[in-house]
Specification:
There is one protein chain. This protein is an all-alpha fold. The chain has one domain. The chain is built from 4 helices and no strands. It is about 55% helix and about 0% strand.
Length: about 90
């Protein structure tokens, strides 16, 4: 199902990349404060815009079958717990 979403709405590999970017951002003790207005340097591999990363994750969570959606949301909840931050769509 993720492959279908990547083929129709996103780019190939973008979901895993978004999860990795979000996890790296949250777990890095030196991460900047989350500011949705900050768009980064424009290079996804360097400092991706977190609003876009969250949008990708939101699309996936809400378009997967219920069981898979719950599993992905549980993984994201574990990541978010490191920061004790709730995404705006929750």
């Amino acid at each position: 199902m993720i492959a279908r979403l990547e083929n129709t709405r996103l780019q190939s590999g973008q979901v895993l990349e978004a999860i990795r970017h979000w996890e790296r951002f949250v777990r890095d003790p030196a991460h900047r404060l989350y500011d949705p207005r900050y768009t980064g340097c424009g290079i996804w591999e360097c400092c991706p815009p977190m609003v876009e990363v969250q949008a990708i994750l939101h699309i996936v969570v809400h378009n997967l079958p219920r069981r898979d959606s719950r599993r992905l949301q549980a993984q994201l909840d574990r990541i978010n717990e490191c920061w004790r931050w709730r995404p705006p769509y929750a």
